[in-house]
């Protein structure tokens, strides 16, 4: 996948997550559980089983501890390529 395609898909993903969050639901489809955590990357809200705490690169050379959803975690390899 190319970065341009990824960005288009990511914006669509953020829209779906935002709609679910607006009704107090986990951003992951098919889960109507109230969100408990926020993804450090997309800022979506998810139940505890859909965000995991790990090191998150915020800028090149800057790493911090944060929560990340599966969608954003999957994107990391593409964007790490430079």
Topology pattern, helix = H, strand = E:
HEEEEH
Largest sheet: 2 strands, antiparallel
CATH architecture: 2-Layer Sandwich
Q: What's the count of strands?
A: 4
What helical percentage do the residues reach?
25-40%
Which word captures the global form? Answer: globular
Q: Any idea what the radius of gyration is?
A: 13 Å
Number of domains: 1
Pick out the low-confidence regions.
none
Looking at CATH, which topology would you report? Answer: Herpes Virus-1
The chain-level mean pLDDT equals 91
Count helical runs: 2
CATH class: Alpha Beta
Strand order of the largest sheet: 1-2
N-C termini distance? 14 Å
Describe it.
By secondary structure, this protein is of the alpha+beta class. It has a single domain (3-80), classed as Herpes Virus-1 (2-Layer Sandwich). The protein is 38% helix and 26% strand. The protein has 2 helices and 4 strands. Strands 1-2 form a two-stranded antiparallel sheet. Strands 3-4 form a two-stranded antiparallel sheet. The longest helix is centred in the first third of the chain and has 20 residues, at 3-22.
At a glance:
The protein has helices at 3-22, 70-80, and strands at residues 37-38, 45-46, 51-59, 62-69. It has 82 residues and is α+β, with helices and mostly antiparallel strands.
How are the secondary structure elements laid out?
Layout: H1 3-22, E1 37-38, E2 45-46, E3 51-59, E4 62-69, H2 70-80
Descriptive terms for the model:
single chain; 82 residues; alpha+beta; Herpes Virus-1; two-stranded antiparallel ribbon; 4 strands; 26% strand
């Amino acid at each position: 996948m190319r970065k341009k395609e990824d960005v288009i898909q990511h914006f669509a993903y953020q829209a779906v997550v935002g709609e679910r969050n607006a009704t107090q639901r986990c951003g992951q489809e098919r889960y109507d559980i109230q969100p408990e955590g926020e993804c450090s990357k997309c800022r979506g809200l998810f139940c505890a089983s859909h965000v995991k705490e790990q090191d998150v690169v915020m800028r090149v050379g800057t790493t911090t501890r944060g929560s990340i959803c599966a969608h954003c975690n999957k994107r990391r390899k593409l964007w790490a390529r430079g």
